[in-house]
Amino acid sequence: MFITTLSELSVFAVIGAVFTVAFGGFLRGFLGFGAALLIVPVLSAILTPERALVIVFLIELPTVIYLMPGAYRAGDPKTVAPIILAMFFTIPFGVYFLVSADPEVIKVVISLLVLAMVGLLASGWKPKNEIRMGTMLLAGSLSGLISGAAGVGGPPFVTALMARNESAERTRSNIILSLNSMSLLTIANYFYSGLVTINLLTLSLALVPFYVVFTWYGARYFGNSGNAYFKNAALMMLTMISVVTIVLSLN
What we know:
Blueprint: H1 11-31, H2 35-46, H3 49-74, H4 77-100, H5 103-123, H6 133-150, H7 154-162, H8 168-192, H9 198-221, H10 227-250
Helix pairs in contact: 1-2, 1-9, 2-3, 2-5, 2-10, 3-8, 3-9, 4-6, 4-8, 5-7, 5-10, 6-7, 6-8, 7-8
């Protein structure tokens, strides 16, 4: 039987889930993205990949509401429109893979994708050519597929947006606009596919306060001088979590 309620979790698992969700919320508020990269591998080990992904996107909903107005004012909706359009068409294909594949296979795939995405972000790689419409559509398509299947679809469009060399505030706002839209589209597909249950809604409601409070704190911390140090430390932690998840899944 799959674990789907708090009463079925050990004290250690509950503490681990709460800590992970809280730290993921801090990442979300501080960087504008990154929560799923941390939360999905950990919750997949505690629950199942399907349930972990549903919870990640359910606890995102209050944050989407909180961050969207400021991001809309400071960002550029026209810039992110191609990304969101591409996601609309590709997320359903990712969800199909999620509900069709073996859970243990999905755990490994998620962890490998997290490692690849972390490597992409840590490398500082940027496209050499000007970021055109085709690049934005491609980034959105990749993000949509990965989001639907593994919940960690942020880095492709994050990389494209960061390569535009705009101000930190404009880039962060565009990232938030894209990620919020991805979250809404993904959870809508999860509802349509029957992945959202009452038990998962209840479990998500129990975790939402931790996520929201630390998202707010992360947003307040944005722009602090510890930016570079914190981001590198976060990437290292995500890498370690992914490696551990792969090892445990293969044993």
